[in-house]
Write a structure and sequence with these properties.
Blueprint (H helix, E strand, L loop, with lengths): L2 E3 L5 E3 L3 E2 L6 H14 L3 E3 L7 H11 L7 E6 L6 H15 L6 E4 L6 H13 L6 E2 L9
Parallel strand pairs: 3-4, 4-5, 5-6, 6-7
Antiparallel strand pairs: 1-2
Length: 142
């Protein structure tokens, strides 16, 4: 799989599998397992998709080591702000059954997205997220 190097030297697969609009738990889980079986190594989900738990189960059951799957998720508008983003992030990790994300994004820059960015910077410093995406820069990584 071809990759791109982010600003912080992290390698991200160029091709990923997104699960937007796969609301049925079993269908999402099956789709992610098939995508991983086919060779996809980046899975893109979001808190607002309501399918992070299915993604986490699929990754866990796939037999592929977690460090070989690049997981992406996003904080949603209603979770904007420092405290809400921190809480949303913990819920995301629980749903995905992992202790870190490879990339964490702000889904839409509304509300207190500056607070969300501060929380994401803190998560990055703590090593809980390998890369973050600013809503006001065109570059990935931190």
């Amino acid at each position: 799989m071809d990759t791109i190097q982010l600003n912080n030297q992290l390698e991200m697969p160029l091709l990923g599998f997104g699960v937007f609009q796969i609301t049925d738990h079993d269908e999402c889980k099956k789709a992610v397992k098939e995508a991983l079986k086919t060779g996809y190594r980046m899975i893109d989900t979001a808190a607002c998709y309501g399918n992070e738990r299915a993604v986490g189960e699929a990754v866990k059951e796939s037999g592929i080591r977690r460090e070989d799957v690049f997981l992406v998720s996003k904080v949603w508008i209603q979770d904007a702000g420092y405290e809400k983003t921190m809480a949303s992030f913990e819920k995301t990790l629980t749903n995905l059954q992992t202790d870190y994300l490879d990339l964490y994004l702000i889904h839409m820059p509304y509300g207190d997205y500056h607070g969300s960015w501060r929380a994401m910077e803190e998560l990055y410093r703590r090593g809980r997220v390998k890369s973050i995406r600013s809503v006001n820069r065109k570059s990935f990584g931190k």
